[in-house]
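Hey, quick one: can you model this chain's 3D structure?
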Amino acid sequence: MYYNTNNETGTRLTRSRNNTVKQEDVILSVFENNPTNEFTPFEVLSVIGFQDPDCKWPITSIRRAITNLTDSNKINKTNNQKIGPYGKSVYTWKLI
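Sure thing. Here's the predicted structure for all 96 residues.
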């Protein structure tokens, strides 16, 4: 789901919605290819960046996609946390 907070219209809105679906598919594939692993959003971004060095998705897009995948019951937020890149605890998600 694309959250149109900047009031896009026309072809720009269509492109943004299509990109969102692509991002969710790519992120879901990270979990599907590693069904027993738990990932933080930063780890998902790292895996995607390793697979495609030209990928420049912001962490906010990764978090949005993870939220959408959680809401659609494709992945679960766990009670486990890992230390993230800023030294703070970050929750993990895993494939259902």
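One thing worth noting: The chain has one domain: 10-95.
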